[in-house]
TrEMBL record:
Designated name of the protein: Circadian input-output histidine kinase CikA
Domain (Histidine kinase): residue spans on this chain: 305-526
SMART domains assigned to the protein according to its UniProt record, in alphabetical order: HATPase_c, HisKA, PAS, REC
Chemical reaction(s) catalysed: ATP + protein L-histidine = ADP + protein N-phospho-L-histidine
Annotated PANTHER family: HYBRID SIGNAL TRANSDUCTION HISTIDINE KINASE J
Domain PAC: 237-287
């Protein structure tokens, strides 16, 4: 295939034989193949040349393929270059997530099939060539449009100065470069130049004396037939209008209108530019944009699907381990079960980090505003790490500024996520000593508060030269950290984005002593209490909610198609003393509810035959209002769209898999504590 300009393809691999193999696959094509044997050399090449595609090896010494790709995507001019990752590793799930989160277009596993790789590369090159042609064409059309507009304005000024009689108007009309039509205040065509005759396909005598609406009906429409609106110099510029030719066809045009006088009578000169080619180019670019957006949607759907597929078995592992730990094991068995539980939680954290980062990248991360209590938030965060600190000489302490109100408005889930990340890092990197959390009021405004959080530990600390990398995605101090302590390197990057969404900042401060100190600020809204009593009294005046009774008080339906999840929920609810029945799909849910009364339905959203959404909708439509049970969604999906859909259908809450006993207890306490 021949090209009008060089098609540069960057091949990045630290092994000579691999580069030779890639070049052999592409030798028959007229591509300009550029070699790079390291990530650093690849970045230097990208600074010098424009590339249609990058074929990038993942496993390289020093800067690996993932790090190289991240830096490429940070640069404005190179972030849209497609990247095909080549790897010797199998398509492990975390490996795939990492590549696609960075911005990979495709993945090939060594040894690759030459024909398959070549077809993929040819496809991306074809897309590059199409986009390149569109870009060049658009730039040329834009430049031409600017030149024409400039010429038109100059021509009109000249025309209006010269026109004093119809004879002068005819001379100007015949010598005009662009299409020009002259008409009077009644909309009658007085004159037009040869370019206009050619453009519209009429003879001159077929138009002179006729209404301008014959050629330009949109002018008559805009001025309601009176033309009084056209009373000033260069009064209007209309884009994307559609004039009509003699044969009835239309085309896209841009027109400009100016005013002059003959014997004290006004007339109007209209220049017409055919912009059909530019319009088609714009439509092609819009189509390309829509295709890119579709690709982004496919990526989001893929991540959501993978979330569901991973969370469903994780639900069985974590939930059953919870039950196992609480089943009277001996000390050795308990130790093994707790290891399984911690490992499952660690895997879940990796999954959540990757999915959150994907949401942030696509701009779909939204914050909610609900009342939250800072003291409870800190204590709940500390409780999560009790097991890890119990066997170490490690204490956790917190201090909250007395000037802060008991409650504020904010996103409790995302604020908890920031604290869990930062406190979790402190616990991870501190063997003994103390972890402090300090919360201070910086500024108080009429409706908002600026709050500072300080998380300080006595752990291994952070070298000054490494601080620049702290808040970058997939970044840790060095590779040995990942091996020793684990993690994706996404936690601090996610914290930074969440803090900025809360109109705050985050930083690391150098300690004179051992350890690390992180400081972040947020801007929260003040919480207006429902009545004066609540606003004046502290937490001691709040009514305590009675605990859920551990007796067979409630009749609960589990709507779930997965057998393991059925058993898990059944054991949890029976352990809490409730009677339970199971439905494996939405149709069974509707059949059961016809014959029995239920207090609560735990509704899975994705079931065969009829899903949870349709089943809930049918219940709301067909069951008498007083007999409708409370419906709680139980699903592996974390999509905000699904959550909003559940609430819109009339569900009362949402439990995300993997399910934990405390989450079930919390729902029961919230809805049935007063029974």
């Amino acid at each position: 295939m021949e090209f009008d300009y060089p098609i540069n393809i960057l091949l990045v691999d630290d092994h000579e034989q691999n580069l030779l193999a890639l070049e052999a696959v592409l030798e028959e094509e007229n591509y300009n193949l550029v070699r790079a044997i390291s990530g650093e050399e690849a970045l230097r090449s990208i600074l010098k040349d424009e590339f249609a595609l990058i074929v990038l090896d993942v496993e390289m010494p020093g800067m690996d393929g993932f790090e190289t790709a991240k830096l490429i995507k940070l640069r404005e001019k190179s972030k849209s270059i497609p990247i095909i990752f080549i790897t010797a590793k199998n398509r492990e799930m975390e490996h795939l997530f990492t590549g696609y989160s960075i911005g990979a277009i495709d993945y090939m596993v060594k040894p690759f099939i030459p024909q398959l790789l070549k077809s993929k590369i040819d496809g991306f090159v074809s897309m590059y060539v199409i986009n390149k042609k569109l870009q060049i064409q658009t730039e040329l059309l834009h430049q031409r449009s600017l030149e024409l507009e400039k010429t038109n304005k100059a021509l009109m000024r000249t025309t209006f100065e010269l026109i004093r009689t119809e004879a002068q108007a005819r001379i100007i009309g015949e010598t005009s470069i662009d299409t020009m039509v002259i008409f009077n205040s009644e909309g009658i065509i007085l004159n037009l130049n040869p370019a206009a005759i050619s453009m519209f396909g009429y003879h001159e005598d077929e138009l002179v004396g006729q209404s301008i609406s014959k050629m330009l009906p949109m002018i008559a429409e805009r001025v309601d037939g009176s033309y009084k609106v056209l009373q000033k110099y260069l009064v209007d510029k209309l884009s994307d209008v559609k004039p009509i030719r003699k044969d009835g066809t239309t085309f896209y045009a841009e027109i400009q209108i100016g005013e002059a006088t003959i014997d004290d009578s006004p007339f109007f000169a209209c220049t017409i530019s055919d912009i059909t080619e530019r319009k088609i180019a714009e439509q092609d670019m819009l189509k390309a944009k829509e295709e890119a957006e579709q690709a982004a949607r496919v990526k989001t759907e893929f991540l959501a699907m993978m979330s569901h597929e991973i969370r469903t078995p994780m639900n069985g592992i974590i939930g059953m381990t919870d039950l196992l730990i609480d089943s009277g094991l001996n000390s050795e068995q308990l130790e093994y079960a707790e290891i399984v539980h911690k490992s499952s939680d660690a895997l879940l954290n990796v999954i959540n980090d990757i999915l959150d980062f994907s949401k942030i990248e696509s701009g779909k991360m939204e914050l909610e505003q609900v009342p939250l209590e800072l003291t409870s938030l800190i204590e709940e965060t500390f409780d999560l790490f009790t097991a890890q600190t119990r066997d170490r000489e490690l204490n956790m302490e917190y201090y909250i500024d007395q000037k802060l109100p008991v409650h504020i408005l904010g996103d409790v889930t995302r604020l908890r996520q920031i604290l869990i990340n930062l406190v979790g890092n402190a616990v991870k990197f501190t063997e003994k000593g103390t972890i402090y959390v300090l919360i201070n009021l910086l500024e108080k405004h009429e409706n908002s508060l600026e709050i500072e959080f300080i998380i300080k530990d006595t752990g291994i600390g952070i070298p000054p030269e490494q601080m620049i990398h702290l808040f970058k995605p997939f970044s840790q101090l060095d590779s040995s950290m990942t091996r020793k302590y684990g993690g994706t390197g996404l936690g601090l990057a996610i914290c930074k984005t969440l803090v900025e969404l809360m109109d705050g900042t985050i930083r690391n401060e150098q300690n004179e002593e051992n350890g690390a100190t992180f400081v972040f600020t947020i801007r929260a809204k003040t919480y207006v209490y429902p009545d004066a009593v609540n606003s004046l009294t502290g937490p001691s005046s709040m009514v305590e909610v009675p605990a859920v009774r551990k007796t067979a008080l409630l009749h609960i339906m589990i709507a779930e198609d997965n057998e393991i999840n059925q058993k898990l929920l059944l054991r949890i609810l029976q352990k809490l003393g409730h009677s339970v029945e199971i439905a494996s799909n939405g149709l069974q849910v509707l059949e059961l509810i016809k014959h029995k009364k239920f207090d609560l339905i735990l509704m899975d959203l994705q079931m065969p035959e009829m899903d949870g959404f349709k089943a809930t909708n049918a219940i709301m439509d067909d069951v008498p209002k007083e007999s409708i049970p409370i419906i709680i969604a139980v699903t592996a999906s974390t999509s905000q769209t699904d959550i909003d859909h559940c609430m819109a259908l009339g569900m009362s809450g949402f439990i995300s898999k993997p399910i934990k006993i405390k989450n079930i207890e919390k729902v029961l306490e919230q809805h049935f504590a007063n029974l």
